[in-house]
């Protein structure tokens, strides 16, 4: 230990070392060379980055301009938007935590009304936003005011058909998927309603209740459905209650025979499923709303009686 201490003291107390001029110059040259190498590498990476970016931009532009890229991007964006609408924003009810008893959806969601669109031609009464879904929303609110938890699906089924290049007849294929998903998520559903409006003239779809014009209601049941008896039973029950409390509002239960159509209207998916035509193409929203309140009243009666 003494030897090491003496050595340390000698180094500590020695004169300051001064490097030779030649050593300093050699060291400077080496540092300069290393700095030049580093700079060249940095410049090469920078130019490579710019080159790759430029080439990628040119390829992307060529794909969009000459190889159908724009159409692909447009289609993909629309499909993504449709998917988002279907999966995120299509289900509407005020209380997400309440068990749902009534599920309302719209297979022909763009069905609209000539007064609402301020047009004369019933064949043109089609609209992406101003349509039968507004009536469905009123029905949801009317039911919830009566303490009947309801859920409305507002999926733009007609837009999905366009995106997938499917015909109008495939509407029920899309709505079937919606029904099945709803039943998986809400096991407590008691009644499913596919809400439409009729294409008949105003004189056939309008009556008076308490002196006010009110849209008529028609229940449609497919005889081809395996749930035909159950669906007909619930339809006739609602019709009878409407007839009892508000005569002339219900036009009755329309049975679709096998020789008329091969469409079950998806009524085979769930035993209490109804297709309801609420009013017609020439009815106003006010007339639809009056009918909605009456329908909500009898639905409440049926739900309470089933408990």
Automatic annotation (TrEMBL):
Keyword Transmembrane set for record: yes
InterPro entries recorded: Spore_II_P
Transmembrane stretches, start-end: 47-73
Keywords: Membrane, Transmembrane, Transmembrane helix
Name recorded for this polypeptide: Stage II sporulation protein P
Originating organism: Bacillus weihaiensis
């Amino acid at each position: 230990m003494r030897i090491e201490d003496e050595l340390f003291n000698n180094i500590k107390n020695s004169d300051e070392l001064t490097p030779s001029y030649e050593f300093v110059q050699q060291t400077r040259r080496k540092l300069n060379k290393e700095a030049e190498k580093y700079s060249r590498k940095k410049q090469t990476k920078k130019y490579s980055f710019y080159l790759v970016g430029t080439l990628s931009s040119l390829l992307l532009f060529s794909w969009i301009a000459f190889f159908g890229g724009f159409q692909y991007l447009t289609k993909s964006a629309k499909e993504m938007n449709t998917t988002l609408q279907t999966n995120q924003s299509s289900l509407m009810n005020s209380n997400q935590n309440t068990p749902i008893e009534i599920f309302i959806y719209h297979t022909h969601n763009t069905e609209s009304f000539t007064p609402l669109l301020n047009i004369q031609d019933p064949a043109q009464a089609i609209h992406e936003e101003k349509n039968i879904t507004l009536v469905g929303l009123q029905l949801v609110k009317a039911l919830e005011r009566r303490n009947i938890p309801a859920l409305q699906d507002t999926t733009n089924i007609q837009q999905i058909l366009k995106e997938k290049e499917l015909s109008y007849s495939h509407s029920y294929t899309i709505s079937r998927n919606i029904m099945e998903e709803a039943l998986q998520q809400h096991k407590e559903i008691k009644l499913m309603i596919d809400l439409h409006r009729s294409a008949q003239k105003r004189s056939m779809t309008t009556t008076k209740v308490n002196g006010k014009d009110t849209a008529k209601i028609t229940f449609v049941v497919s005889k081809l459905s395996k749930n035909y008896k159950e669906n007909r039973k619930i339809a006739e029950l609602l019709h009878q209650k409407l007839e009892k409390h508000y005569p002339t509002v219900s036009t009755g239960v329309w049975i679709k025979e096998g020789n008329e159509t091969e469409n079950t209207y998806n009524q085979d998916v769930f035993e209490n499923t109804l297709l309801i035509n609420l009013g017609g193409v020439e009815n106003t929203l006010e007339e639809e709303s009056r009918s909605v309140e009456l329908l909500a009243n009898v639905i409440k009666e049926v739900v309470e009686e089933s408990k």
